[in-house]
Every structure is written in C-alpha cells, then in structure tokens.
Design brief:
- The chain has a single domain, classed as DNA polymerase, domain 1.
- It is 70% helix and 0% strand.
- The chain has six helices and no strands.
- The termini are far apart.
Amino acid sequence: MRRHSSALSELEKLPNIGAAIAADLRAIGITQAQQLAQGDALKIYFYLAAQMGKRHDPCVFYTLLAVQHFLRTDEKVAWWKFTEQGKALLQSHRDKT
C-alpha cells in the first residue's frame, strides 16, 4: 500500500494536476511524472477518451501540455495559458484525419 501511495502523491504534486485527472491517468497506467514527460500529450488525451469511453474536455489536454512544460522546463504555468497552443494542435490533428 505504501508504494501505491507514493505513486498517487507524485502525480498530484505536479502543477495543474488534481485528484480527478490523477485518477484518470492512473486508470490508463500513468503513475509517474516521467511517463508524462516522455509521452505525447495529444496521444495521452485521445487514449484517455478511448479507454474511458468518453471525450474529455479539451482543458484536460491543455493541462497535459502545462504539465509537460513544467517537467521539461521546471516552470509552473497555469493550464489555461496553453489553450491557444492546444486548440491549434487539436485543429491540426482534425485536419489530418
């Protein structure tokens, strides 16, 4: 049980990650910050939707972008600051499909 508690707190210690998003990430096997740092935020966002059977609000994607930014730069930035970038990435994905 102690090992699982450490994994829980690691995600929730990240800026912009609350209990709900941390739980969703754990449900798809992401339990450590390093997994988020190495993953593709867009792929994680769509994988969440596929595994959970519902489309997540785009703010979840923006949150993933903010977390990856933090993990790569150590700069804490609010998730909504990634709205413009996230919308562009989502549109680019739509244009390709």
